Amino acid sequence: GMYFLEKKITKLYSFTNSTSISQSNKIVFTENNENQYRTNNFSFLAQLSSKYKLFPVNFEVGAVLSESKYKYGNLNSFLKEGRFFTNFNGKGMKNIFWNLNLAYDIQKSTTSNTGIFTLSPRIRYNKSKSNWNFSISGNNILNLDNVKRIENNSTPNYFQEKSYSALAGYILFELKYKL
């Protein structure tokens, strides 16, 4: 089942919440042996956002959590993930806009654990009555090495846990022209 709520708390704040749960139970025959293959998946989001009109900074703060469990006969596997985030955005001077996204990602599986802190800023300049737009943005700028991520693939016949490298941090300069 799935549940979703977006509620305006006051004129200045809103709250978003969602939950998803799924389960499956299958009987699988392997070499004439009957085995049960079970999956349980759970995900949860909670987020508080500001809606300031006069104040130059708005924010989002929240968490996204998920857990996947797999069981086949006597074998078990799981992957737990969590993302705790704070995002700020605002307007500096007349034509300068900025964003700062901070997150801490946690992954835990049957055999591995990771924790990754990401910092992703952006500054954009739009000149009034101009077709030009300039910006500089960064993604994961504190982790310039390739961080490891975990992926858990499961079928009734096998469990596979993979560790792979994520894209290293980078900085991007943008120049746009509207036609």
Description:
The protein is mainly β and 179 residues long. It has no helices and eleven strands. The strands form two sheets. Strands 1-2-3-4-5-6-7-8-11 form a nine-stranded antiparallel β-sheet, with no helix packed on it. A two-stranded antiparallel sheet has the order 9-10. The protein is elongated, with a radius of gyration of 22 Å. The termini are far apart.
Helicity range of the residues? under 10%
Question: Mind telling me the C-alpha Rg?
Answer: 22 Å
Give the strand content. Answer: over 45%
* Cα distance spanning the termini: 46 Å
The helix-and-strand class reads: mainly beta
Q: Count every helix, treating DSSP H or I runs of 4 or more residues as helices.
A: 0
Biggest sheet character: 9 strands, antiparallel
Unreliable spans: none
Shape: elongated
Topology as a string of helices (H) and strands (E):
EEEEEEEEEEE
**Biggest sheet strand line-up:** 1-2-3-4-5-6-7-8-11
Number of strands: 11
Mean pLDDT across all residues, rounded? 87
Task: Provide a short characterization of the protein structure.
With 179 residues, the chain is mostly beta strands. The protein is built from no helices and eleven strands.
Secondary-structure map:
Blueprint: E1 2-8, E2 13-30, E3 33-50, E4 57-72, E5 75-91, E6 96-109, E7 113-126, E8 132-139, E9 148-155, E10 158-165, E11 170-177
Antiparallel strand pairs: 1-2, 2-3, 3-4, 4-5, 5-6, 6-7, 7-8, 8-11, 9-10
